[in-house]
TrEMBL record:
Gene3D superfamilies in the record: 3.30.465.10, Uridine Diphospho-n-acetylenolpyruvylglucosamine Reductase, domain 2 (3.30.43.10)
InterPro entries in the cross-refs: FAD-bd_PCMH (IPR016166), FAD-bd_PCMH-like_sf (IPR036318), FAD-bd_PCMH_sub1 (IPR016167), FAD-bd_PCMH_sub2 (IPR016169), FAD-linked_Oxidoreductases_BP (IPR050432), Oxid_FAD_bind_N (IPR006094)
Family: Belongs to the oxygen-dependent FAD-linked oxidoreductase family.
Pfam families: FAD_binding_4
Any one GO molecular-function label of the UniProt entry: oxidoreductase activity
Species, as recorded: Mesorhizobium erdmanii
Keywords for the protein's UniProt record, in alphabetical order: FAD, Flavoprotein, Oxidoreductase
This protein's name: FAD-binding oxidoreductase
Ranges of residues in domain FAD-binding PCMH-type: 8-180
Keyword set includes GTP-binding: no
Length: 449
């Protein structure tokens, strides 16, 4: 295969070697897969190196793209792992169903959504994607196919959800969708002057609405520091039941030689965005595309960051620390002159995921996008990691391309349990860089004793 398989952040080299899903299945069933040689690759929407495997090959899962069954009474859908979320939405919408949890793009595969245990704007009500997985089939390098659920092979079930593709090859899955009155969303924007006002609004917004998310004007300092807009939403009582493909014809056709999303542009954009969206304080009905997937309207928008790509940093901190830590994170970026195009703040609820390793936990999560400016950006990201970990929080691994082994271990204390269940034939650059480094140091220390 000649296609190069990149991560969405474009800061890491593409994985040059890939094989089709059928070839990987044959290797695994024949017991011929070598250690560390494989990693499933869905649609390349992970920002870092959790979807890359430079020591082996990635498995192109996009050919496994069939929806196998759908129960229009219960909302249970069974599909191949390579089916896109957009296809699931289109299939279920006429029957009055919608995925219970959707991330910020509909162009992720079902297998990828499970492997990363993705979350959305309604974690306070629905938890993570993994909370709605009934079962899946998992092929491992021992040649066996396992049916995994909360009752069947429960340890593999928990390790695979949020396991970043390291426990084997997910072939298909059965998930529960939720019944909705329509696809359209009744959206309301509430401006807030600062983060203190946002925190005062957040819990009540979660109680009253299915969806809630805040946009922060990250560049605003002084008296405007922490200002933004809180968006709340609920499915409209009367609206569309047909999924559309609006905006898919727009694209960034080539890679510009420099970062288009520079500070002057972002300052103007933030001012215009705050002015336009801030006027919509009366609830209005909008399409699900605009509410859930605004960036999907332009293909390859990540190219706007230029040839060096972008780093996305997503952290979560405990609720009791958020009023101090979130302003500190934003201030750290402003102090070094780093501008974030996408700055999103959400409140996570207390619904526990079935996953062994899951990023969401009770508290507040902040997402920042930074153009890659080399060492300057890496130093900032390390500072953001330190602030997060010292507050008892965590850094999102499937958004990451450079966190240290220590940051990962502090964020996910249960990582050795996943390592114990990892299929030896599966490895990612992320796991080798973090957990692999920890494990090697631990073995070296044990040998020296």
């Amino acid at each position: 295969m000649t296609e190069h398989f990149r991560s969405f952040g474009l800061v890491t080299p593409p994985t040059p070697r890939a094989i089709h899903a059928d070839d990987a299945i044959a290797l695994l069933k024949g017991g011929q897969a070598k250690d560390g040689s494989l990693l499933a690759y869905g649609n390349g929407r992970s920002y870092g190196d959790s979807c890359q495997n430079h020591v082996g090959v990635v498995v192109d899962m996009r050919s496994l793209d069939h929806i196998r069954a759908f129960d229009a009474e219960t909302g249970v859908l069974e599909a191949d792992a390579g089916v896109l979320l957009s296809d699931i939405i289109a299939h279920a919408a006429p029957h009055g169903f919608f995925p219970a949890v959707v991330p910020g793009t509909q162009f992720v595969t079902l297998g990828g959504a499970i492997a990363n245990d993705v979350h959305g704007k309604n974690h306070h009500r629905r938890g993570t994607f993994g909370c709605h997985v009934e079962s899946f089939t998992l092929l491992r390098s021992d040649g066996k196919t396992y049916r995994c659920s909360a009752a069947d092979n429960p340890r593999l079930f928990a390790a695979t959800i949020g396991g970043m593709g390291l426990t084997g090859l997910i072939l298909s899955a059965s998930i529960r969708l939720m019944r909705v009155q329509s696809l359209d969303i009744v959206e309301k924007a509430t401006p807030f002057r600062d983060l203190g006002e946002f925190f005062d609004l957040a819990a009540a917004a979660d109680l009253a609405n299915e969806y809630a998310v805040a946009w922060i004007d990250q560049l605003a300092g002084g008296r405007g520091s922490g200002r933004g807009l809180l968006f709340t939403g609920n499915h409209a009582e009367h609206g569309s039941h047909v999924a559309s493909r609006a905006g898919r014809n727009l694209s960034v056709p080539f890679q510009p030689p420099f970062n288009v999303l520079n500070r002057p542009f972002l300052a103007a954009f933030n001012a215009a965005y705050r002015w336009k969206k801030g006027r919509a304080t009366v609830p209005r009905q909008t399409s699900y595309h605009g509410f859930f997937f605004p960036l999907d309207g332009m293909r390859d928008w990540n190219r706007l960051y230029g040839p060096k790509g972008l780093f996305q940093h997503q952290s979560v901190v405990p609720e009791q620390a958020a009023r101090i830590v979130v302003p500190e994170l934003l201030a750290a970026a402003r102090q070094v002159g780093q501008a974030s195009f996408l700055t999103v703040l959400k409140r996570f609820g207390s619904i526990r995921s079935p996953a062994l390793l899951s990023f969401p936990r009770p508290g507040y999560t902040l997402t920042l996008d930074f153009p890659n400016r080399g060492e300057k950006t890496l130093r900032l990201l390390a500072v953001l990691d330190r602030i997060t970990v010292e507050a008892g929080g965590a850094v999102n691994p499937y958004k990451d391309a450079r966190m240290s082994a220590a940051t990962f271990a502090a964020s996910f204390a249960d990582w050795p349990r996943l390592e114990a269940l990892r299929d030896p034939a599966f490895m990612s650059d992320f796991w080798a860089r973090t957990a692999g480094s920890i494990d090697l140091r631990r073995r070296g220390a044990e040998a020296a004793e």
